Amino acid sequence: MQIKRCCVGVIILLCFFQIFSQSSNNINPFSGQYFRSPVDYSFNQSGNFCELRETHFHAGIDIKPSTSHGEVFLHAIGSGYISRVKISAGGYGKAIYIDHPESGFTSVYAHLDEFNDRIEQLVSQYQMALESYEVDILLNPNVLSIEKSELIGTMGNTGYSFGKHLHFEIRDTKSENPINPSHFGIKSEDHIAPSLVSLAIHGLDPDLYKIWEKRISLGLASDNNINLSTPIEVPAWRAGVALNMYDRSDNSHNKQGIYGFHMYIDDSLAYSYHLDKISFEQAKYIIGYYDYKVKKVEKSTYSLCYRYPGNDLVFIDHTDNGIIPVYVGRERKVRIEIEDFNRNKKSLTFSLIRSQNMVEQSPIDTSLMKILVGDSLTITDKNLTLFFEPKSLFRNIRLNMVKIEGNKNETKYIIHNIYEPIKKPIKISLRPEYPISDKMDKAIIVRTNGSGGSKLNYGGKWIDGYLTTEMTEFGTFFIDYDTIAPTIKSINFTPNVGKKSEIKFHIKDNLPTKGKTVGDIKIKVWIDENFVISPYTSKTQVLQIPVKHLENGGHDLKIEVKDHSGNTAYFSAGFVVKK
Question: What's the whole-model pTM score?
């Protein structure tokens, strides 16, 4: 790897690697030999490190199951101890975290189907003690030691997963920041250059809002050096580039992310990155990295090849911001190079020139409050309070708020533009306009995209007479009340269970939830007054109750489902097992 071609982040990471390779006991986790693969076959990937998901950068790699194996057994990549086991209805599902103290790294294995017997026994003890399927267990080093290559479980489809696979990560143990597993030699074969699908040129105003756009299809050109011969005229003072692009690895049809990007303006580097590491906090900043409105409206992903003022992603070389001043009569030559981890490359060359006819901009409404990226301020309006932290925004905004006052209904506040991304949550507090003492425990803050839009429950906590939560998207917000209990519907339950190994129910709450102040629904199952560990998957909303362990004869089933507002649904019935 040539350091002169790398951005600052990569140079720092290389120095990090060098510290390990020069240590006194010759530990070098980056040798490709220190850690082994978590599977016993040459795997194919369905997702790579930091590829673009809708709400985050992907923190690991997704390993496909082997076509020649049935059940896929997973192995510890190195010796150490299990530091955490977490079981979630969504997210990573059944997940194992192994600390490797000698190296300073932690490996993560998510969406497992089953754990090995030692782990399963320990987890069951916690689940029974807490009477909860979902648990998050932190373990001391002396509880569950692990040897390199030891079987830890089987590949599965638990949590927020859409097919059997292993989501695998390597993290720096101290910071918990994920690092590209390819640096440790854990990667699939890749001889395929990335693909460029479409080029977008944005005419930008001083606050980097798009005032003009031109898209050019690149037609998935097989040529690794694409050259657009005709200069592109831009009717604005400054331009930005955005690209729809992806990568593929060998034997995989899945579209994955680009590893390295370099953009040169008149042969000077203007914007670059290598996707070597990310933090979980910054992984959420992806919405300021791609064209947010295009993603929301068209479901297309155009990576911005320029940087908003509030975009401080660690992997981006911050020596320049990628903004291109354009001039009349003077072409600006743009050369873009993209690459995967194995240095398969593709390039695109074109020129920009300013048009004689400038785009007519909409007049600025100076009556609206301008909020700068670095501002920390509190905005109050009768029964509404908004608190902006210094890094709440990706770019400056002129805050637009509209009140819709209802007759005996709580006022609805249309807060700014739903197509403007929020970097860090903005605290929102609403005070009821009408007495609600009899239903305070049912009050929630609701968001919609506009009139008639579906409701999203943002929850809320009472603080000094205000219901307070965190706003992660602009939209319409108001106080509402959740008085409806979740529903419990049978999928395959009958009074005569017979020889079934499990019985299933569909569990659904009336409002989807979002935000830190809203907990997931809580489910408990008892058979014959004894708590039963029953897997629940939030993606499918299916509850699975095991009954294969029961003796022949009659049994009593009870299910309890409680939502964020304390609304509780019950199901009880008798059933007969006959094996």
Answer: 0.91
